[in-house]
Structure formats: C-alpha cells, structure tokens
Design a protein that fits this description.
The chain is built from 9 helices and 3 strands, in the order ααβββααααααα. The chain has 238 residues and is mainly α. The chain has 2 domains: 3-133, no CATH class; 136-237, no CATH class. A 3-stranded mixed β-sheet has the order 1-3-2. α1 packs antiparallel against α2 (43-70), α2 packs across α7 (180-197) and α7 (180-197) crosses α9 (226-237). Residues 1-19 form the signal peptide. Residues 61-235 form the Peptidase M48 domain.
C-alpha cells in the first residue's frame, strides 16, 4: 500500500473527528474521547484536515523520489502521521520507527495553524529533508562525541561518579546543538526544492516564518533566525 493510501486510511477519523484520530503518535496517546459528528466539527477545521490530506498526498511521492535520488541507501518509504495529543504544540517533526522507516509527524494545532497549501507543503518537505540529509544520525553522532569529549576531559581533571556523569550530560547537550541551526537551514533548502517539484510555491510557503516567533541568533540555539531561513529558501530556488 502506498503512502497516499495510508494517509487517507489514517485520516478518515480526522475528517470525522479530529479529537479522536486513530494514528501512530511518537508518545503515549491520551484516553479516548467521545466521537464527534461531522456537523460538530467547525468548517475551518474540516477544511484544514482536507488540506493536509491533499498536500501530503502530493508531497510524499516527490519527497520519496528526492530521497531515493540523493540517499539511495536510506529507507525512503515515508509515513506521514498525525500527532493528535490534546496538549500537543504547533509543531512538526521527523523521526524513524523501530523498523527504520522515516516518519513525519504533524500535530493537529499545526495543521490548523497553516494558512495555505504552500505553507503545509513546505513544512512537510522540510521534515522530509531532515531524513534525506541524515540529520538524526548526524545529531546522534555529535551528541555522542560531545559526551565523550567532556567526560574524558573531566576524568583527566580527576572527576568521578556524579561529576563525571554531569560532564557527560553537558557535553551531550552541547554536542546535540552545535550544528542544529545548520541542519535547519539545510533542511529548508532541500525542502524548498521538494515543495517546488511537488507543484507548490516554496517562497510563499516560507512566509510561515513571518508569523512565527523569531528565535534570533542565540549561541547554541536550536533554530536560526527566521530571516536566514527565508534567505536559504530563496538561494535554493535560484
């Protein structure tokens, strides 16, 4: 079964009752809630759900093709799912399941927050790009290296026990963040081309950042300034 079919199958409950969709989520699912009829769900929420299904249906095969072309040794069989936790923030993220399959998860608040198809396409393409660029593996390696470097330095200084553990944890945090902003910019660039090839306007999609809080250029921040991200998209499409 291809992803387009999987998305539709998983999203049927969303179209009927977003508060009780039956899809895989990365953390524990809250207790079941009473189902809603279609009439009880606001029209704008139903429209957002339909937008998500339509855009995901178009973006997934293009992202898969890009993945197979740029990283043929990876599992490129994307599974796009909905994180329907009631307390989920406006967010989208990429992970890999226990079988190595790439998963793109989008929260219900994010689906409701985007303003048009271009924004939705850019967000999905950006997350697909993280997998193509192997950012999870690269971050894991950087995290491990940071922990080892700090723990080794602490040990040479005579640290042991809890002090050694603290040094390793600090090194792990720093290691995980040292390239975080670069990874986001790289995913923006690759994602912009995926969105474009799927038939969407990636420049318009990147206008999402105009409505997002700007993280600024913080030392060891996890995300780059919004202006830098928009520029990365523009450069990628020139």
């Amino acid at each position: 079964m291809r992803k387009a079919q999987i998305i539709r199958a998983l999203f049927v409950p969303v179209l009927l009752a977003l508060a009780a969709c039956d899809v895989p989520v990365p953390t524990s699912t809250p207790p079941s809630q009473p189902s809603q009829t279609t009439e009880e769900i606001p029209a704008d929420v139903r429209a957002a759900a339909r937008r998500f299904v339509t855009v995901a249906d178009r973006v997934e095969p293009v992202a898969e093709a890009a993945c197979r072309a740029q990283a043929p040794d990876l599992n490129c069989d994307y599974n796009i799912v909905v994180d329907d936790r009631a307390d989920a923030p406006i967010n989208a993220f990429q992970m890999v399941d226990d079988k190595g399959r790439p998963v793109i998860a989008v929260t219900v608040p994010m689906i409701a927050y985007v303003q048009n198809d271009d924004e939705m396409a850019f967000i999905l393409s950006h997350e697909a790009a993280h997998h193509i660029a192997r950012h999870l593996d690269r971050r894991r390696e950087s995290t491990r290296a940071g922990a080892l470097i700090f723990a080794s330095a602490a040990a040479r200084g005579g640290a042991s026990g809890a002090a050694l553990d603290t040094a390793a944890r600090l090194g792990a945090v720093l290691g995980s963040r040292v390239y975080a902003k670069d990874y986001e910019l790289e995913a923006d660039a690759i994602g912009a081309r995926i969105a474009r090839d799927a038939g969407y306007n990636a420049i318009n999609g990147a206008r999402y950042f105009e409505r997002s809080p700007d993280p600024g250029n913080r030392f060891l921040g996890t995300h780059p300034p919004n202006a830098n991200r928009v520029e990365a998209v523009r450069r990628a499409l020139r």
